[in-house]
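Before relying on records like the one below, remember that each one covers exactly one chain. Contacts with other chains, cofactors or solvent are not represented anywhere in the record.
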Amino acid sequence: MNKLALSFLLTFFCLAGCKKSTEDERNQGTQFRGLESIRGSHGEALDFYYENDQLTGFSSPYYGTPQHNIFYNTDEKIKYIVSYVWDSYRTRMASAIFSYDLNGNVIKVNYKAAFDISVTDPYFGDLANGNIDPEYDSLVYDVNKRIESIYTLENGSIENHVKFYYEANKDVPFKLEEYVSERGALVLYDQIVITTNDMDAPYRHLWFLPYARKMERVVLPILFDDPSTYIGIYLSYVNKCITNYKVYNDWGFYNYQNTIFTYHYNSDHTILTAKKQGNPFDSINYKFR
């Protein structure tokens, strides 16, 4: 089985001098809107675009990769994302539409597709005009308002279930499991156990990236040593920096368990660099505006 280029795990180790000071001030709610680009030593790349300090899109800088535009409700919550790419003779397009509960939590994600229409066409955010994909995601939260489960359903049947596990009185999951449907039953397919420190992750507001998957899987280079796992695309829900991870499944050839990531900021705290311990040439740079 081919490995997905999903690296959704940026793991940092809290070094001396990396106290909660300037970097934490950058992290308080606005860090996501200040993220300008991500670059990795193996070609990983993602750029972010803004209008009046509001994120309006993101894309890889490489030719032939999809562009993603973000549209908002009047309350500034993300209403939908439109992804598009030129495909030889036409533009393939898809959208992910987010529905919220009264507490402001996303509870459902619907999908639509089209060809060769304007990115700004309201069709992409309209749930009433038909043409909705039979596949959708349903999100469930626990009594502490933490994401607990993400169900992917098609025509009402559960095809996939991602489950988050927490320790008591902790808001950061320590384990994610993925279950897939086989002959009408959900069976455990993939698992990651993670260790985090107390530093806010730079990607912690990018919760919506897994749902841009209808055009491509948008992959943050978090697990940049490329283990055999697909569940890493959901690690943007882990809002603290991951210092170690262990992959458990019965199909992978690269079920790493001993990787340690370290990190440091540059002198003006505009770039956060993550490195794999023991291999300083493997690194990711998170650049802020």
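Confidence is low (pLDDT under 50) at residues 1-33.
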